[in-house]
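Honest question from a wet-lab person: if I give you the sequences of every part of a complex, can you actually get the arrangement of the whole thing, not just the pieces? Trying it with mine:
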Amino acid sequence: MSQNIYDNQKFFDGYKKLRDNPFSANILEEKPALFSLAPDLKDKAVLDLGCGYGENCEEFLRLGAKRVAGVDISEKMLDIAKIENPGVEFINADMSDLSFVKDKYDVVFSSLAVHYVENFSLFVEQIFNILTPGGYFIFSQESPLTTAPIDGAKWVKDENGNVSHYRLTDYSRSGKRSTSWIVDGVVKYHRTFSDIINALCDAGFVIEKALEPIPTQETINRDPKWEKDLHKPNFLLIKAKKYYIHKENLDMF
Ligand SMILES: C[S@@+](CC[C@H](N)C(=O)[O-])C[C@H]1O[C@@H](n2cnc3c(N)ncnc32)[C@H](O)[C@@H]1O
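Yes, you can. This is the full assembly:
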């Protein structure tokens, strides 16, 4: 069973405060990048893994999806999701084993949740099987450069207190990280770029696009602290496709 930190009251309250900030990295960088990767959702069945408050689910419906289901391990997050998004089916479950998903979906999204999954290879294999042929798996996660340092992400400052660079350590040590984020002991899993790409390819996916969004010049002008994201992006996003013909059979053509 995976950790369910979002049901920890202190974490839940702290996270809510972060998400209520209209100038968060989620709103300025991650959400626009995620939706830029979305295919036409008209009449599609969509599954959102680690859906949280369900705000993306609501947007998928608005974009024309005929059916949207959201999965989350946290009852507290889903309590809000159910009130705010009545048109969505919400399932309280651990997405690290998706054998409970019996329906097929045309698009599987996961926004900022896959770094909580320990066995990424099993996870993407299960998603591949849930998808209809031609379907997409589109996800965002913390950048592997952020998840790498075992003692937490740290920025190095110059003598004037300005950020000079990001301190990258432990990048090639894939595995569990216990981090301090709102509370101590938040468990995430670090994977290198090649771990992620190879797991997707081994499952049968073809990667169509990757994004590492950066702040707009307008955002940097408004608050120069955003310039540090040009040293290290906050997020990695990938759009992967399940082709109609399995790639092992492509040699026939
Ligand atoms: C950073 S929040 C993102 C929420 C939402 N996707 C969004 O972008 O607004 C991560 C969410 O993933 C959920 N989560 C973490 N581990 C999970 C797991 N093993 N199974 C299902 N949900 C999980 C958390 O409860 C939380 O709601």
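Two things worth pointing out. The pocket of S-adenosylmethionine is lined by residues 2, 6, 50-52, 55-56, 71-74, 77, 94-96, 111-113, 116 (CB under 6 Å). DSSP finds eight helices and eleven strands in the chain.
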